[in-house]
Amino acid sequence: MFKPRRTKMLALFAGLMLAFSMVSVDHAEARRGGSFGSRGVRTHQSVPATRTAPNQAAPVERSMTPNTAPNAARQPSSAQQRPGFMNGLGGSLMRGLLIGGLIGLLFGQGLGGLAGLFGLLLQGLLIAGAIMLALRFFRGQNARQPAMAAAGNAPGANRYGRDAYSDVGKPTALAVPTFGARPASAHEAAATQELKPDQGDLDRFEALLGEVQDAFTREDHAGLRLLVTPEMVSYLSEELARNAHNGVRNEVNDVRLLQADIAESWSEGARDYATAAMRYEARDFMRDRSTGKIVEGDADAASETTELWTFMRENGQDWKLSAIQQPA
């Protein structure tokens, strides 16, 4: 049998490990992925669903565009609407109760204090659950938005990707998308007008998918400045700097578009925007800079990814990537 002192130390050690793991959740950040960039006046609005991305995408999470919509105060971002339990109120309560219980354990309350701690944790969970349910109910009443706006289009509509194949394995002709799937809000209508990209625009979007990935793989900052907006340059350069600091290189090779369609497109004065849902395959992996070994991913097998890319052009110039979002 364990001696009481040893049992007490083991319980304290386990509690400290749990506490530190909870704190680390708050500061965890994904190495890749996420939603960042700008989409003009629609930056802080959800993207309509499409055949390629059948779930409505949440608004951009990181952007230099301020949220100036009249109802911005009542429409928080998706991260605020659906926080992880350990990142929101529940996490704060649990960390406070756990740390309080550990302090009591340190000051001589022993395992009895630890038992009281778990009782407090249970109470905290019940209280946090009730509060979260109430908050979700009121937010649901005030922040409902139309979903699946474009999912009901006829087969072939809003499609320009190379996902439809004939019996002999050859891709069919690319189709120009239709629009009008999502009604514009009063704020949008006052600042934007509908835009219909032509086939040349669609071909350029497909080309940019590969060109941006290639410049990123080569860590070509000058090349990226020609293909993406200055804001996107800052985000991508930040990721490249983080990879360099960690001693790795992110390589994305053999990019091939499988399916794509236009979620929405519009003009704001001299600027045109188009958001495309794109499903593509590529060999995406991390390579150690010093040894050349693959430390994450598979260099020999392609994986599929679906993202929403927003392209922007100003005064009729070339299209540039202005935002990347992850579908819900």
UniProtKB/TrEMBL annotation:
Keyword Transmembrane: yes
Region (Disordered): 33-85
Signal peptide: 1-28
Transmembrane segments: 85-107, 114-138
Stretches with biased composition (Polar residues): 43-55, 64-81
Domain Tim44-like: 185-326
Protein name as catalogued: Lipid-binding transport protein (Tim44 family)
UniProtKB keywords: Membrane, Signal, Transmembrane, Transmembrane helix
Gene3D superfamilies: 3.10.450.240
